[in-house]
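In response to reviewer comment 3 from the previous cycle, which asked for concrete evidence that the modeling workflow produces usable outputs, we include below a single protein chain processed end to end. The sequence was submitted unchanged, and the resulting structure tokens are shown without manual editing.
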Amino acid sequence: MDDMERTARSLAKEEEILERLRRGKNSEQLLETKFPPVPWVIPGFVVPGLTILAGAPKIGKSWLAMGMASALATGGRVFGEIKVEMGDVLLLALEDTERRLKERLEKMWVRGSIHLNIRTEWPVGPECIRYLEAWMDEYRETKAVFIDTLQKVSGIVEQNSYRETYNAAAGLKKIADRYSVAIIVMHHTTKVVMQDFVHSVNGSVGLTGAADTVITMQRLRMKNDGVLSVTGRDVEEKEYGIRFDPTIGTWTLLDEVPKERPGWEPRHFRDGKKEAAGGDD
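The workflow returned the following structure tokens.
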């Protein structure tokens, strides 16, 4: 490469940098910009992007995921009252068998739908992301992907590693943003009860930091009523009272938020946390 070619390339690179620096808006332009309304997938709860839905083991996360996925695939109602638009859905039920999933669907009295695709096996780690990309390229109309659970696809070895948890979440978020699809990932909460519900999500803050929305579920064992806490970049931070009906495996909203919380005794907190009694992670 001679000097003239080097100079030409250098100038081209500088021009490219300048062009990239000119992109964007000042505050006046931004205030004048018209943006479309938030494209709700589940109004008040889920928008396109990465959502972490966390709760203790056996609390009913899988039932809730199945209910949401079925409602979206049939244009039904989430929590029995929130109307959603029908669309294609992928449910990765990776901790269940097809027999158990059929039994759940029958128990919930939901009708079958060609719009709800269910898989009980899926690759782990980078292969998971490649398969999701291939799915979205093939099924462009997919509006939501439910993953039950994160550990089954992430390949995370050390839950408290910021790098591992952030990279796992960032890979899923990249797919969600690229295809404008809602990816809802089931995950566990910790054994430690936290005053800030976001901090109760198991693992490093890299996981919740990368997510667009964080939803946690709380329910006392042997009780049907619980609390759903929601926060995110495009959703209102709010708490909801929820009730589980074990006879039909469905969740509904309550008029009030239950006062009774699992392990939540504020006077016993130290440094914002307290060991919860019992329970598995």
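Confidence is low (pLDDT under 50) at residues 264-281. We consider this sufficient to address the reviewer's concern, and the full set will be provided in the supplementary archive.
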